[in-house]
């Protein structure tokens, strides 16, 4: 609201807001004229980087935290986020790779059969996340520029509002792509006669002739946002030129090609000869990105609450990897900025060093961790004397605590690795593909133990034929031996020797039974798989009696049942999942705060505005919550807003003014004369108007029309 | 004065454009006349106007010098000119190129163009030793764009102002006196008849060919074209171009039984019966913009429904789209009935109605609202409907636990979703004034019932329950 509002609003309420009039004061450092805008200037980007280098984290724990720790946190944030971001970027690039190569191939090699339209057109079905379109089209442009001889122009709906502007943009972008733009400019300026108009495609033609271009690729990034009439005009114009200019069109389609076709005029759509390209859906990319960010070796993990809120937002609102990455980055930033113990997320050796050099206050912080309390409670809980003494030591003796921290941080990484291994086995032994995100959420919520997924697997084993059983055991041992690239795990045979040998034993037994049964010519089945209860019907005196009869199981069957039982036990034993959040020091590497992320990424401006106007004491520091809202001590705008809420869809201004005056004058008629009151009234009214809540009614002259309802 | 064009040369054009002898001859004669000022060629799409004009002009520019005159021609494709000024510049440039004159000034208006053209015509006459040299300007498709029609009378005057200039106007529709000039000869290019179309198309050898060689292929193709005309093109008043593309598209599927060996090329009528479905499906007349070449021939082309957005849009965007559809297709007065919980039917006014209400009833709109298409609605109303249907929508999906309107009310995500729907043109803003998200700005939904039904079902809303009629 004021000139320096930007700076003042950070610290809270701008005092100028309540002023009746504003005096414009120019800052000394503001240049008189804004710097001339330049196209493609890179200096500003460099400047940003420069600034970012100077930003430092704040010292935590009331400023006691040593500067070396502050710097360490910052360094850790940069390193860990840098690594994660790099990996995400690789995935995103790889995800589009397929589309890119297809599009390039299409642009290079399409020939149109006779009588099938004239313009080769690629429809790239990107899905509705507009944010990811820009990355894709940047990649496409980059790829095409390197692969084909000819200009590549990307048009956005904002650039091209009419035909002239679109053509200008195409020509400008083309001529600035050349190797030596100066030369091009000279050539395009026209060696014969006056200059051409800057929207004349003749310019493009000259460029194409001069550079011997094979293709002119024009990509419409958000083609739905273009005016369909404009698109039709462009297409028809290109069609006129196709005998001289080798156009290829690319459209980014966010909805569907059919909808796009419906909007395009018949004459224009007849010119197109299209091929559709599908881009990998956001959800499957998300799954892969997810695996990267939670893998067993990353320093920081998202807690279940935060993760499920992010996932819900993906599903409900955005569906875009870019937004997800941003939220993730924010989570990293938040963790390293606010958590003094985040310095312990380093590799093992360095963590040990750091632990030894901790400040006393750090140790105090550790003792206040919920997970520490849980640990102590567990130690005391069973009444064992040694353990109680140990707990006491940890509470009192710093050096013992530090030693314990070293042990636990080492143990945590092992436990975590084990957790991952078990999740991997669980995924592989399940026939249906499990959502890894879902699995992770369950594991971190601690609900995976005895969950439907685990039970489902154990139940399915019971009904398996020997052949299936063997292949299942083979799969599991295979995973243990060789690891899983999806989970970024290497083989862990040496750690789970016992488990594997048990499996192998059972496998041998099954195989033996299988072979024997084969020789006997009778299939082996476990007692669970066999319908061992037959129904026998007997008719006695015209009454039907049903009786159950146990079908007999062969010796082999019984033996096999035993094998299945023991396999179930082994697997059940193996597939136990520890909830990571209960581990001591888990706060160091799990971040699970939902509200900061929510505040930043999903603000609710309207809701907040309405709430603060209807109940100013919540937001304005000077307001007394006990005072009734409709009293003179409240801000005039809030009074007016509350009256506004009570009124119907049109409001008589005179009535409004009368009641406003009566409230303001009501209790203590201070020194508010009528002029001041009127001024306050008008100011409040103007502010409501500015917020888009009222406007002049067309139905009645002296009335206001309500244009915003509360709570929408 | 009258020197007829060389018949021998004309015959080469005749062979290139079958069924057009008379027209070609009259055009050539008219162009050969020194006194010709303006000539109008008119006829519907794809009747050979531009191509024949180009061929005849090209021929005359080559052949006339023998007869003591020189003829230069410039064809201006007005479809390439996007502003009137562009047309003027293009004309001057084209003429300059033809006569080899170095134009130096910019041309911004019609009067400047006349000046320049005059200069160039004089220059051309001074350059050539022939007694008379002529310049022909052909404006191709000048009635297609409304901005160029204003220039027509001025262009028609060109020939009168500058000696030795002839203007040819190639138009689709020659309205009576559209040039505001008297006595302009018109040449009509009639649409091709079935026999003519068949004759023209028979010059093409289609692919894939039959095993019997070119002769057999041509034979089948000829009869096939006749059937396509009778069954499909005749009723859709298709021109040569669209008929040709239709034939090309249907051909591979039509001859499939022959290629498979189930029928021989001789059994034309049997093949036709087998492929009867091809000629009954009128969908072929509206070709998809995605080429069907990728789909293997023979399998029925899958008619993909526009369900894409139903599965791809985020949950709340889908609900907002459905809400927008309801807002567009319901009367605001019925909102209470459909969207308010425990809504009782509106209390009727008791007592005698006034005269005014009676008349309003008799004036009541008779046209069904569905036929009127989507109506404009204000944003606040749509948001209110959104909040109402959100309660009924199921929270299907993995992460949905207790979605409530209170959680999203006034959130920036909802506003972003609306903005996204608008940029995808699923919702269109109809009022110009005001901010995008302002409560009173007006919008209209831009998707049809089929799409909405799929979208609504995907979020668990039964759209029929909320629509009047």
TrEMBL record, chain A:
Family membership: Belongs to the ORC3 family.
Annotated localization: Nucleus
Biological-process GO terms, alphabetical: DNA replication initiation
Positions of the Origin recognition complex subunit 3 N-terminal domain: 42-344
UniProt superkingdom: Eukaryota
Entry keyword set: DNA replication, DNA-binding, Nucleus
Protein name: Origin recognition complex subunit 3 N-terminus-domain-containing protein
UniProt KW Nucleus keyword: yes
UniProtKB/TrEMBL annotation, chain B:
Signal sequence segment: none
GO molecular function: DNA replication origin binding
Location in the cell: Nucleus
Domain ORC5 lid: 221-280
UniProtKB keywords: ATP-binding, DNA replication, Nucleotide-binding, Nucleus
Annotated InterPro entries: AAA_16, ORC5, ORC5_C, ORC5_lid, P-loop_NTPase
Biological-process GO terms, alphabetical: DNA replication initiation
Sequence ranges assigned to domain Origin recognition complex subunit 5 C-terminal in this UniProt record: 313-467
Ranges for domain Orc1-like AAA ATPase: 17-161
One cellular component (GO) term of this entry: nuclear origin of replication recognition complex
PANTHER family listed in its UniProt record: ORIGIN RECOGNITION COMPLEX SUBUNIT 5
Family the entry assigns: Belongs to the ORC5 family.
Name of this protein: Origin recognition complex subunit 5 C-terminus-domain-containing protein
